[in-house]
Amino acid sequence: MELSNRITIDPAKCNGKPTIRGKRITVQTILEFLSAGDTIKDILKAYPSLEAEDIYACLKFASQLMNRSYIIKEIA
């Protein structure tokens, strides 16, 4: 799955958050629906302009972000 065809980042849309195919539907929104227990079918019903592959791309995008190393530093 080519993420660049599904997940886009445009500073002029949604404050630069990753969105699906340039629409004003963020990856975060889809992940929140999934974490709340909604099914892919539920999401597609709420957002008919999406495709199941868009939702899988959101999951893959999130997975790739978690594949990085992070260090939390205390400030102040």
Report on this structure.
- This protein has 76 residues and is mainly alpha-helical.
- The protein has one domain: Winged helix-like DNA-binding domain superfamily/Winged helix DNA-binding domain (Arc Repressor Mutant, subunit A), CATH 1.10.10.10.
- The chain is 46% helix and 5% strand.
- The protein has four helices and two strands; from the N terminus they run H-E-E-H-H-H.
- Strands 1-2 form a two-stranded antiparallel ribbon.
- The chain is globular.
- The termini are far apart.
Short description:
The protein is mostly helical and 76 residues long.
Keywords:
two-stranded antiparallel ribbon; 2 strands; Arc Repressor Mutant, subunit A; 46% helix; 76 residues; mainly alpha; single chain
Sheet bearing the most strands, described? 2 strands, antiparallel
> What are the low-pLDDT stretches, counting only 5+ consecutive residues below 50?
none
Number of strands: 2
Q: At the fourth CATH level, what is the homologous superfamily?
A: Winged helix-like DNA-binding domain superfamily/Winged helix DNA-binding domain
Q: Name the assembly state.
A: single chain
- Count up the domains: 1
Strand content: 5-15%
Order of helices and strands: HEEHHH
**Radius of gyration using CA atoms only:** 14 Å
Supply the CATH architecture: Orthogonal Bundle
The whole-number mean of residue pLDDT values reads 93
CATH topology call: Arc Repressor Mutant, subunit A
